[in-house]
Amino acid sequence: EPLVTGFDTHWLCNRVAVQEKPWTWQLLNWRIAAKEFAISGAEHNQRIRDKQFIHFLRETLLGNHRLVRQMQKESPHFLVDDTLNGLAAKMNALTCSLDVDPAVLQATADAFDANFMGGGHLQNDDQIRRILHARQWGPDRLRTCKPAPLQSSGAGPFIAIQSQLITRKSLGGLRTDLKSRVLDFDDQPIDGLYCVGEAAGFGGGGASGKRSLEGTFLPGCIMTARAAARSIIAGR
């Protein structure tokens, strides 16, 4: 099963975590990066931060080459090269190893590109099928490249991004009941003490389940806040 970002991220992280080395690589080209690469944070999204709507629209439609060039300049984990052989050398230099075999990297790219030699048969590739599925939704179509050979003329240079898992949120928090009241060690509500949102584990200890992401946290925050407000108004 291909590890495609944006589908089962929980499964993707599990697969990455059991690898011998604590990192993995994303292989793409400049065409894909300009269209799809994004970073959260106001410092990387000044078009939104500074309300530069025209520039934001242009980068959305034509590609955010500015951000890709910024990462190429500032991040040692964002590697760029005109050839796959050269890219493999940079990947190995970064990790002080010989983990990436240039021949295997070339064969991997060739195998992906071969899917486009058979016309309609390309949809038999599960990775490409998922990309096509994502593009069926309008907003994702804007920020997801139409599948094409990785080694297409004019689509380069090639890019390899070293990725490593980090823990950002534990989904833990204070134990609460269904009225957002904080419970003591005996599971009894503490009078006058309420807890909502992130401090309550985004909805009472992971209400969104193991596969919750940023997009699923907001409903839990609203739910716990409403429960607390109703309980306070009711005086219990």
Fold topology:
Layout: H1 9-17, E1 24-29, H2 30-36, H3 46-49, H4 53-62, H5 65-74, E2 78-81, H6 84-95, H7 102-114, H8 126-134, H9 138-143, E3 158-163, E4 181-183, E5 189-194, H10 201-205, H11 214-234
Antiparallel strand pairs: 1-3, 2-3, 4-5
Helix pairs in contact: 2-5, 6-7
Q: How would you describe this structure to a colleague?
A:
- This protein has 236 residues and is mostly helical.
- The chain folds into 2 domains: 9-163, Flavocytochrome C3, Chain A, domain 1 (Alpha-Beta Complex); 181-234, no CATH class.
- The chain contains 11 helices and 5 strands; from the N terminus they run H-E-H-H-H-H-E-H-H-H-H-E-E-E-H-H.
- The chain has helices at residues 9-17, 30-36, 46-49, 53-62, 65-74, 84-95, 102-114, 126-134, 138-143, 201-205, 214-234; strands at residues 24-29, 78-81, 158-163, 181-183, 189-194.
- A 3-stranded antiparallel β-sheet has the order 1-3-2.
- The chain is elongated.
- The termini are far apart.
Describe the structure in brief.
This protein has helices at about 10-15, 30-35, 45-50, 55-60, 65-75, 85-95, 100-115, 125-135, 140-145, 200-205, 215-235, and strands at about 25-30, 80, 160-165, 180-185, 190-195. The mean pLDDT is about 85.
Keyword list:
single chain; about 240 residues; mainly alpha; Flavocytochrome C3, Chain A, domain 1; 3-stranded antiparallel sheet
